[in-house]
């Protein structure tokens, strides 16, 4: 991949990095605002605690890992985000096949971004440090 | 001998069976019908030209209150109606959408029903009633505030101050969605939804589900009609097309004349013209045509509500329940006067288009269309009374109240006795033979009900419930009221009011024209003292400096909408800062 292509890929990967970070923060600050975006109704008690804690962790890890990878140029940091998205897509597919869930369009986004991240892990330069 | 003994036992058994049936039959069903923003003369029994035969029939057989008062806006009224406790002590001195942050810091200014009060639904359910709610709740949407947690066994309830009547969509930009819940869970409205029809359908469904178990029911039906957006089925709109072409002044005169002929007002009743009432004749023909249709939709919405009330009555008759059912019909507050003067103005259109609504003449009131009535027609809706919803003038507080049903026995046809919103709760409990709540309930201290049982005036045993010295206070955003006997101390705030206290005799002067402050200084002073005491007893907060209710709604909207966004943006900057520092140091 040429320098221009690497620059484009870096720029593209910054977008999901910021998006995931914002989604994680929204789960911490305004869960009622973001829950409907994912087709969720907020629970109460332990359910609410799990929704906020787990989903905020998911998106913050996805976003910040990707940011670290892009900024520090340490390619191993691409993999946590790729794994999170890959397993999320796998989970959605299984939910559709085995658990009678709707086939969410989000799966397409997750697969595409995961592939882009894996491309980043392969083609973007590794820091010499 | 054995035969005699058997016969004796048989007779005793039959007597026991009959007694048990009599006991069940002795507890009446209660249907509490609550219109939203309905003006004092908006139904036929109070002087309206709008066809409301079901309510007219109830008024014909029951008692019509002509001096009943409620709160000036919705949630405080609902809190009082359902608990019998003053709105300030019940935690709902105002709707949360209008509370200033300084006010919201006080525990009784949360705008949601406090845990220190008990609803009549809770008490009736505890006494063996089935309790149903189909309609607007607006007393809190947190899980522990839902109606299914406040005594209602079956519910389909709107959490917000209002919503579209044709589909599940919010009517104001302060809401992301129209928040409907059924039995404690989020609920999606059906495709063929129209509010009044749907709410009566659900009420009938709830009643029908348990009809055979012999237990009485309490069905609370807080309609969306005729809250904005004013919407109605085409067939109902058609009946009033052209009816209002002569304008609001003419309609007001007609309604007052009809109310006078019904004996509701004396022929010499005086009335003021509100500053928001424009000169009809100064409008061009196109504007007149449009304003006339706005009102036709309103009338259609009222008639549609009445039709569905009639459908419920017919159902109860078919099921043999009508003879054992008491109906209470009223409105949460007076008519809404904040509709746009000119719906084609830039500001009005900007608001509507931002919500995705249209307001063209042809589809006005139908699905996708937003409508309200001109404040000129609101003045007609309240007859000779002054002011509207949100104000402490009689137009905001005095509304129809009809109580009817065979279980009441002999009733007076009409009463001029003063009655207050908290009295409805006490009266419903009295009808059901259930004791009002005391100082404790379910193992915890609660506020006792202060409303009074209206049964003595309903059956004619008394002419009045409140003595000449008793006082009833009320406050909303600085609008202040104190009722005592036939007198009313009142302060209306800007923009329509001037913030000055006045004194009126609302029996002889329901239009509030003749201020008695100067001629009755002792009464004025004593009532001012009583109001001050009411404010202390009810923990009424002073308004923050420069408070304006419309501006506060916008500020709360921005805070609610932008607050989380700003916090997220700030936190994002904090997250990104180390990366920026890293990049800078690397370079």
Can you describe what's shown?
The complex is a heterodimer of chains A (129) and B (587). Chain A has 129 residues and is an all-alpha fold. Chain A has helices at 3-29, 31-34, 45-72, 78-98, 106-123. In chain A, α1 runs antiparallel to α3 and α1 (3-29) crosses α5. In chain A, 29% of the residues are buried. With 587 residues, chain B is α/β, with parallel strands linked by helices. The radius of gyration of chain B is 25 Å and the shape is globular. Residues 10-24 of chain B have low confidence and may be disordered. The interface between A and B is medium-sized, with 17 and 14 residues.
Helix content of chain A: over 70%
Mean pLDDT of chain B: 93
Order of neighbouring strands in the sheet with most strands of chain B: 7-6-5-4-8-1-9-10-2-11
Biggest pleated-sheet summary of chain A: none
Q: Terminal Cα separation of chain A, in Å?
A: 22 Å
Mean pLDDT of chain A: 91
Multimerization status: heterodimer
Features:
heterodimer, A: 129 residues, mainly alpha, 76% helix, 0% strand, B: 587 residues, alpha/beta, ten-stranded mixed β-sheet, four-stranded antiparallel β-sheet, 16 helices, 13% strand
